[in-house]
Specification:
Blueprint (H helix, E strand, L loop, with lengths): L1 E4 H9 L32 H16 L3 E4 L3 E2 L2 E2 L2 E4 L6 H4 L6 E7 L2 H9 L3 E2 L1 E4 L4 H9 L5 E4 L15 E2 L11 H5 L18
Parallel strand pairs: 1-6, 5-6, 8-9
Antiparallel strand pairs: 2-5, 3-4, 7-10
Amino acid sequence: MAFMDESVWRGKIYSGGWVGGDLGTGLDAPVIEPASGRVAIGPVIDKRQRDKIHGLVTQSVAAGARLAAGGSYEGLFYSPTVLADVSPQMPAYASEVFGPVAPVLRFSTADDAAKLAAESEYGLSLGILTRDVMRGLELARQIPTGIVHINEQTVDDEPNIPFGGIGASGTGARFGGAANLEAFTDTRWVTIRGDIAPYPF
């Protein structure tokens, strides 16, 4: 899901700035086989996931969302997709898509954005794009997620950093780096003596 300030909405989506080929930065990214060269969007994992993504998009459009960009695929390559005029009840918003789809909701204030995001049952990763990093950090404090990226997309992972979500996004555990010790092992208390302990009975 994506939340967009009203002023950005008017300039990009409402005005049609993402329609008819003028897709703006990122939406015209190459969707190609990674081995062939420069690539921004690779394939989804399998046909089942591709069909799930496409189903969420088409169901949301049928429910009243406007397809502002994308919405098509070739093989396992799903085009970057933007859905406008989205409500929280629409399938692409109410479910975790795990594909290149941005169901966009408008907000007028940072408090509105925080309220919208906090009402979701999901809480894996949060990306906040802002010119004011401290305001972004303050907003992040109001939105419960397992991961926060300020001025970066939500898909960012490092093998040495704990990774995991909250709510319906995960099990509550973290994996990656030192968190692997807790995620993939059980704590066990073991004591050892050189000889059998003497007892007075």
